[in-house]
Design goal:
Length: 123
């Protein structure tokens, strides 16, 4: 009787799939998102840069901000994400708040920083 290796958990599969460089294609601000292992760099084009580590759960990312604007360093941002067909949807909670968005708002809703990313083209 053959024993099948367990298939990777959805979270593990997403961790592997999310690696690399992403560029925003929709949302209120232009941004780039780089993921390497469990580390991230998030850059608003022409603005702030955030760096840190993250914990990935089913449709959730908890981002531990280690560098960036002083008021956010040392805080946690509880975010939603959805990875589907090469498209990454992402929406953070306010850094330092224990609240996570309950669903994805429309990218045009100015109350939220809801962004849609696609993989950056290799240059």
């Amino acid at each position: 009787m053959a024993v099948l290796a367990p298939s990777p958990s959805p979270t593990r599969a997403d961790l592997e799939a999310i690696q690399g460089v992403w560029e925003s294609v929709a949302g209120p601000r232009e941004a780039r998102f780089l993921v390497a292992g469990n580390r991230f760099t998030f850059e608003f084009v022409g603005g702030d840069v955030y760096m840190g580590t993250f914990d990935l759960g089913p449709n959730q990312i908890d981002m531990h901000i280690e560098a960036g604007p002083a008021k956010h360093v040392g805080t946690l941002s509880r975010c939603l994400y959805k990875l589907e067909g090469g498209v990454l949807r992402w929406c953070p909670g306010r850094p330092g708040s224990d609240r996570r968005p309950s669903s994805f708002p429309d990218v045009s809703d100015s109350r939220y920083l809801s962004l849609v990313f696609k993989r950056a083209r290799k240059r």
